[in-house]
Amino acid sequence: MNGKIKEAFEQIQAENELKEKTKEFIFQKTNGYSKVRTGNYKYLVSVFACAVLLFIGGHWLYFTPTVEISIDINPSIELEINRFDKIISLESYNADGQELIKTLNVKFKDYSEAMNQIFRSEDIISLLEKDEIMTIAVIGSGNTQSEKVLSNLQSYTEEKHNTYCYYAHSEEVENAHESGLSCGKYKAYLELKEVNPDITVDDIHHMTMREIRNMIDELSIDENNSTDYYENETSHRQGGHCQKHK
Predict the structure, then answer these.
(1) Kindly report the CA angle at 90 between 202 and 205, in degrees rounded to 5?
(2) What burial letters (b/e) apply to 166-192, b meaning 16+ CB within 10 Å?
(3) Residue at 244 is within a domain
(4) pTM, two decimal places
(5) How far apart are CA 152 and CA 14, in angstroms?
């Protein structure tokens, strides 16, 4: 009898020990699992943070303009180029410019593709055939990229009729944009204003570059001033500036 009681008691103890060991085992496993989960969580947070930083940094690099190209004939538009020579934005400065931009499919493409599409535009072809003048200003901060873009555009337009390239410093463009004009047209406006002080920005908005040039030539008294500016400039960097009118 006593043996049976003892056996039963030992069985109960064994079950309790088994329960305790089982609880301890489960606790250890659960605790270890929690540590692994915590470790994975921290690792994933670190990876996610790095990914966010890379995304923000990459976004900043890609969508920061480093060079602008101002194109004027009567449509007046400007293209913003990133450090990878891709177009990240297009801006029009008159109604004709808005219509031209609608025909272009160049967002996030190389600027050379934009020039190809612009010179294939029926409106641009028609204007150049009518002896209109196109000016292309490369706007930058004197860095290697702006010099390369200017050189490439000079080569591209070398055989183009009535098409002229020049360089303008980025700091000089602010006055043009404040007047609601592109860099190229603002430069022509300042030159015309020297011989016709009554000319206004509103007048310039609706004039083609050829009309502005003809008016400058007609009003210039000094023979040196009447020389065709764009023929002399022939794309040299020092020739093109969007200077502030005093």
Answers:
(1) 10
(2) bbbbbebbebbeebebbbbbbbbbbbb
(3) no
(4) 0.71
(5) 89
Based on the structure, what is the number of domains in the chain? 2
Task: Give 145-148 contacts, CB < 8 A, sequence gap 24+.
Answer: 145/66, 145/67, 145/83, 145/85, 146/66, 146/67, 147/237
CB-based contacts of 236, cutoff 8 Å, min separation 6? 166, 167
Task: Please tell me whether residues 129 and 48 are part of one structural domain.
Answer: no
Query: For 196-243, how does the pLDDT look when each residue is reduced to its tens digit (9 = 90+)?
Result: 999 999 999 889 999 999 999 999 865 454 444 444 444 333 334 444
- Block residue for tokens 């109604």: 95
Query: pLDDT tens digit string along 110-167?
Result: 999 999 999 999 999 999 999 999 999 999 987 899 999 999 999 999 989 899 999 9
**Tokens 């049976």 found at:** 4
Same-domain check for residues 80 and 201:
yes
Distance (Å, whole) CA 231 – CA 165: 11
Residues 116, 211 within the same domain: yes
Starting at the edge strand found earlier in the chain, the sheet holding 87-92 runs 87-92, 76-81, 67-72, 134-140, 163-169
